[in-house]
Amino acid sequence: MKDYLEIKTLLVEGLLEEFPQAEGDEAEAVVSHWLQASQNKIPFLTDSIRNYFEKEISNFLPSTHKNMVNESEGFYQFKLPINWKSIPYPPPKNPLFNFIDLFAGIGGFRLAMQNQNGKCVFSCEWDSYAKKTYETNFGEIPFGDIRKIDELEIPDHDVLCAGFPCQPFSLAGVSARNSRNTAHGFACETQGTLFFDIARIVEAKKPKVLFLENVRNIVNHDKGKTFSIIKSTIESLGYNFSYKVVDASPLVPQKRVRTYMVCTPKNMPEFSFPEIQGEPLPLKSILEDVVDESFTISDRLWEGHQRRTRNNLSRGTGFTAFCADIEKPSNTIVARYGKDGKECLIPQKESNPRMLTPRECARLQGFPEPFIIPVAKTAAYRQFGNSVAVPVVTEIAKAIVAYLDICKGK
Ligand SMILES: C[S@@+](CC[C@H](N)C(=O)[O-])C[C@H]1O[C@@H](n2cnc3c(N)ncnc32)[C@H](O)[C@@H]1O
Fold it and tell me: What Pfam families does the annotation carry (predicted)?
């Protein structure tokens, strides 16, 4: 039996030779999506490429299975001769429901949904480093720019998951953009409009549930106008719109307050969010015992942090960098954390404070230990800063699965 990576590489090489018109990046996404769910609709996958894959894969099938090669139902999904052992989170064998993972990042949603026995049938993410982390852990390469994907080529799904890009809506994004006098929110062509890519997919595919995540401030952005456009757009597509602002700190040792939205068809009951309460967890619970010196910040950086903190405190504005209190949850880890670590510096007895390690950032977001971090630390900090708190998404995912059960009975 061939390992996932080996078989994927063979098919991608063959695909590019046989069909030179296939684009390199998307060819990998096509092959890996096919290996996960060959019977599904897959963007850019023509009938002739599908036939080519089936012919190629038959070379790897044990002879007893050769006569089953053309069976359409179920065969490839579970019986392709692929060894998923090198992949920590392979597709589930007997899924209860399926979902798509838009703006997938490193798969925080996917982890939570797969844990509930959900099967991902389509993912998209355009950052090549995030794609690498995603593939290493899930054995699938997401498609790239969502704006280039025809919604009709996306397979049917029960749940649409999307933590859509938050820069144009966050407080930091707004103030930086205001000061540069540039557009933000829906007026920002390249980022704000991505919400409308979600809307066009919803309109075409009508999933049973939409599960969205964004920054806390999306609720207040532009005096509430942005949020009201999101709500009314979703309602106009035939959905109830429920949302809740949740702090992750009872589940992970990090103050991370985010807006979660779950939308369900108008002819079905509204969704109720689970309660997420409890004492905040202490940062010390996720710290590594031994950390390399390279994570200790330099004298220059530490002096700069202290100087800016003093100036800002005296003016009563702006950034302050203190050492974290490890008995309490950390501040929110953001994508830029790797630049200077000011959101969370760990005090050390005999030297300057240190940055968190990428593994500690993974733990702060509730990623389990088997999750592989295959990228260098700058990319890893950005990826975990952008991601979701997996245990929060998991709690909401459990309630969504219970909701889907109710739908089945209706
Ligand atoms: C807030 S992050 C989502 C992180 C994700 N929920 C996770 O658990 O890791 C938004 C992601 O959208 C991606 N993105 C932005 N614009 C995109 C586009 N046009 N097409 C595909 N992905 C895009 C970014 O690279 C980023 O990783």
Answer: DNA_methylase
Query: Is 29 near ligand 1, meaning CB less than 6 Å away?
Result: no
Number of separate domains in the chain: 3
Q: Determine the average pLDDT of the residues in 58-83.
A: 57
Q: 145 CA distance to ligand 1 centroid (A)?
A: 9
Angle at the Cα of 370 (from 343 to 28), degrees rounded to 5? 95
- From the CA of 166, give the closest atom in ligand 1: 1
Kindly report, residue by residue over 83-139, the tens digit of the pLDDT. Answer: 888 999 999 988 999 999 999 999 999 999 999 999 999 999 999 999 999 999 999
**Strand duo 239-247 + 257-265: pairing:** antiparallel
Q: Which amino acid is at 370?
A: P
Distance from Cα 328 to the centre of ligand 1, integer Å: 29
22: Cβ below 6 Å to ligand 1? Answer: no
Q: Are residues 137 and 51 in the same domain?
A: no
Q: Do 242 and 309 sit in the same domain of this protein?
A: no
Query: Are 15 and 46 found together in one domain?
Result: yes
Can you give the CATH number for the domain in which 367 is found? 3.90.120.10
Query: Is residue 147 located within the same domain as residue 249?
Result: yes
Alpha-carbon gap, residue 260 to 213, rounded angstroms: 5
Q: What is the residue with the minimal CA distance to atom 18 of ligand 1?
A: 145
Q: How far apart are CA 84 and CA 360, in angstroms?
A: 27
Share of the chain above pLDDT 70, in %: 87
For the question of residue 323 being annotated catalytic, the response is: no
| 168 in contact with ligand 1, CB cutoff 6 A | no
Which letter does DSSP use for residue 156 in this model? Answer: P
Burial class (CB in 10 A: 0-12, 13-18, 19+), 197: buried
Relative to beta strand 82-83, strand 97-102 is unpaired
Q: What is the rounded distance in angstroms from the CA atom of residue 119 to the CA atom of residue 39?
A: 13
Confidence category of residue 190, pLDDT binned at 50, 70, 90: very low
Identify whether residues 228 and 292 lie together within a single domain.
no
Which residues, including other chains, have CB under 8 Å from residue 149's CB and lie 6 or more apart? 43, 124, 143
For the segment 341-387, what is each residue's pLDDT rounded down to a tens digit? 989 999 999 899 999 999 999 999 999 999 999 999 999 999 999 99
Q: Is the pLDDT of residue 185 over 90?
A: no
Q: What is the CATH number of the domain that holds 269?
A: 3.40.50.150
> Are 325 and 399 members of one domain?
no
- For residue 249, the enclosing domain spans 93-280+372-410
Are residues 228 and 164 part of one domain?
Answer: yes
207 within ligand 1 shell (Cβ under 6 A): no
